[in-house]
Amino acid sequence: MMAKKLTAGAALVLTVFALSSCGNTIRGVGQDAANTVNATQSAANNVDSAAAN
């Protein structure tokens, strides 16, 4: 009986860790996408400025 509770508790802890790491990964992907958009806009502004000169 005690082994089943211990196994269930360990599984719960591992599940929580797995889900929290997925959340961090998804957040990181969102930040990377935002940084990509910002870099693309910056590059476009640089090209526009160079073409205006």
Structure characteristics:
single chain, mainly alpha, 1 helix, 53 residues
Describe the fold and architecture:
The protein is an all-alpha fold. 96% of the residues lie in helices and 0% in strands. The protein is rod-shaped, with a radius of gyration of 23 Å. The relative contact order is 0.07.
Give the CA-CA distance, first to last residue: 79 Å
What overall form do the CA principal axes indicate? rod-shaped
- Rg is 23 Å
User: What is the mean pLDDT?
Assistant: 87
Number of helices: 1
Report the structural category: mainly alpha
Unreliable residue runs? none
Name the helix and strand elements from N-terminus to C-terminus, one letter apiece.
Answer: H
Number of strands: 0
